[in-house]
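Next up, sample data.

:::
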Amino acid sequence: MNITATLASLGHGFINVCIGVVFILLVKKIDDWRTKDFDDDTHIDDGNIAVGLRRTGLYLGVAIAISGTLGGVSKGFFIDIIQLIIDGFIIIGLIFSTRFINDFIMLNHINNDEECIKIFPQPDGSEVVGNTAVGMVEAGMYIATGFILNGSFSGSGGTFFQGIASAVFFFIAGQITLLFVGFLYENITSFNVREEIKKNNLAAGIGLGGILIALGIILMASISGPFTGWGSDLAGFVIYAVFGIIMLLVFRKIADHLLLPTTDIATEIKEDRNVAALLVVQSAINAIAIIIAFSM
């Protein structure tokens, strides 16, 4: 073992971690400013699960995305650090753009900020603050976007500007695919997903959020890799994405029958609001997505 090289590598890793932590703190400050009409920290201290979920997804999404920039062949300590900082700022801008996609397209006619501090009366006369279903979908969208950005910024090849252009292009392609599958999920589901989410049905939020995360994992695998040319990279993305989506939908149906043999997901969501059942099913679907991603 080369002790000098090992210590240098550990030092480089320590600097990367420090930069990553700074970006997460920056994201918190930006989101605090964005939601200045209400204090997220106060809501979290008061036990608002919806706000906690959306912040959880945001931080995890940023960390997953930034980790994609840390791979590849080193170009030298200082160049690597500069590239990490540039990529980090681009990632923050792109991940916050996901909010608008989530608000105006994925959850059309649902204002996430308002829903996450809305008061919901309970059957026993008590009240709960925050739509946890909306918080879960937003968390799922952030985490899925983090995986897409991870794939977009991973690898090497081409010039610096080609790498940035490729990352932004495949981020957009991944988001379009994510929205397409989100709408497909709604259309193949026997109940109105958005209505259930608006009613603060956490099981419905886990169902949609879990599918988004699973798809994000698959899209990460279909995007990642060195830049080899626009035509070949785009063709590879389309082939792998279509293959992965078909595999995901097929195994989702199989998981439904195997894990819920006496009922089905639609009943557990709409009728029973069974959060436990959805956690089990969606964790299995995400596990399958990981296997699919590493099989491609």
Q: What stands out?
A: DSSP finds twelve helices and two strands in the chain.
